[in-house]
Design brief:
two-stranded antiparallel ribbon, Rossmann fold, alpha/beta, eight-stranded mixed β-sheet, 10 strands, single chain, 7 helices, about 230 residues, globular
Length: about 230
Amino acid sequence: MVEISPYYNVARSKKIVEQGDHRGAIGGMWDEIGKLQIDYLTKDGLAPADRLLDVGCGCLRGGVHFVDYLDAGNYFGIDLSEDFLNAGYEVELAGLNLQHKLPRENLHTTSEFDATSFGVKFDAVLALSVFTHLPINHIKLCLARLAPSVRTGAKFYATFFNMPDDSDWTEPALHTPGGITTYPDRDPYHYARGDVEFCRGLDWRLDRLEEWDHPRDQWMAVFVRT
């Protein structure tokens, strides 16, 4: 069976966490990319009173910043790996004395993009370096399954490896900065702008797709719940 991405191998994730390398397992650049995402969302209007869902939150590289910024209990995260979530809560949040701002039940393990168990309507959703590892139908499933848990008008922020309109998306592509090679048919995936508009008919519309100074040349797509 072909593996969708290494992150679906929960046994691999567990081993890495046991070895103490949970930061490296989710791509490193802990401080740089962690701060980058909260800076972007707060500049775009994320307020402390908003409820944020972090899809593929891992061991809380961005989560530690959002937990600190948001009102207590307003950060929620889902991930494939319970071990990543435990490392985020028990190592990263504990090390910053932030556990009191995040109930452990706000972190949920799922492979189905399921946020219904939280029982809330989210004001913002973030998928940082998640869609870069997924084929297009998994991305559509994510958007479709999360829509009922998101309030009308809320924004969904998701990063992609973007292919310019005049390039050949069928071939591997080298991205700078970062030196990441992406592919049309395997992880890490790239997409053309027309692909990113797959949200049509899924209770979302594409608001914008833009560069945002990501150190590995991931672009930011912003969808709005319709």
